[in-house]
Amino acid sequence: MADFILHNYFRSSTSYRVRIALNIKKLPYEYRAVNLLKGEQLSIGYKDLNALGGVPTLIHNDKVIPDSFAIIEYLEELFPSPPLLPKDSYFRARIRHACEIINSTAHPLGNLKVQLYLEKNHGFKPQDKEAWACHWYAHGLDALETTLKNFSGTYSFGDTVTMADLFLVPQIVTASRFNLDLSPYPVLNKIFDNCNKLEPFLKAHPFRQPDTPAELRIS
Ligand SMILES: N[C@@H](CCC(=O)N[C@@H](CS)C(=O)NCC(=O)O)C(=O)O
Fold first, then answer.
1. Most CB atoms within 10 A, among 5, 14, 77, 206?
2. Residue 131 pLDDT more than 80?
3. CATH number at 4-82
4. Is residue 173 packed enough to be buried (19+ CB in 10 Å), middle (13-18) or exposed (0-12)?
5. 70 CA to middle of ligand 1, Å?
């Protein structure tokens, strides 16, 4: 059995964060697809691994680690090279704050379970769901644009990839899927383009995964 098994879904932005981290740290893993559209995240077997019924979940030598942030911090502690956080405590705090803007403000409100709830209980149509997601994604990305103006270089924090980039890139990909206008974010777009020149990011892209449907697949 592989040392690392990643339960994830090609299109999930939280899964995408972890795939980038594993690629940066050069840790091979077995890919186990959890099809969110079929509700596989809610099966009893999967919820034994991840009580919230979300992806990703990492299994490392039989140890179960749910949640992308917990997984990335775990990998960073066990495999500190190359680092995703600098040594300086102030910058570590600011990077975690940038991650949190996405992790707790932008991403959760566009999540599938939220969308389904709005559809079922409040009669949201596809265009209402898109407008809802875009509103909250913009709320997070506005704050991140303002924040990263002060810290970015080639990447979110200076010229070295950090954890913040692992959260930003998947969120931009998701926001563009929901047709959010990304033109107000020149700093974020610059970082996005620079990250997407790097192999660990390219390899982790949703359209290059084993469960990517044939019609979406890119080389
Ligand atoms: N904070 C969690 C969130 C996990 C999460 O919500 N993942 C989404 C996919 S991006 C999911 O599994 N959604 C399933 C659903 O909404 O039913 C993490 O970072 O891992």
1. 14
2. yes
3. 3.40.30.10
4. middle
5. 13
88 C-alpha to center of ligand 1: Å? 30
List beta partners, residue 5.
Answer: 30, 59
Q: Where are the domains of the chain?
A: 4-82, 89-202
pLDDT for the residue 1: 66
The helix (run of H) or strand (run of E) holding residue 64 is strand 63-66
Q: Which residues line ligand 1 (CB under 6 A)?
A: 12-14, 36, 41, 53-56, 67-69, 111-113
Q: What is the pTM of this model?
A: 0.97
The separation between the first and the last C-alpha atoms of the chain, rounded to the nearest angstrom, is: 28
**What is the reported pLDDT for 100?**
98
Mean pLDDT calculated for residue range 122-150:
97
What atom in ligand 1 is closest to the CA of residue 107?
Answer: 10
* Domain covering 89-202, topology: Glutathione S-transferase Yfyf (Class Pi); Chain A, domain 2 (1.20.1050)
pLDDT digits (tens, 9 = 90+) for 102-116: 999 999 999 999 999
Structure tokens at 181: 């206008």
Q: Are 32 and 8 in contact (CB under 8 A)?
A: yes
* Residue-wise pLDDT tens digits, 32-81: 999 999 999 999 999 999 999 999 999 999 999 999 999 999 999 999 99
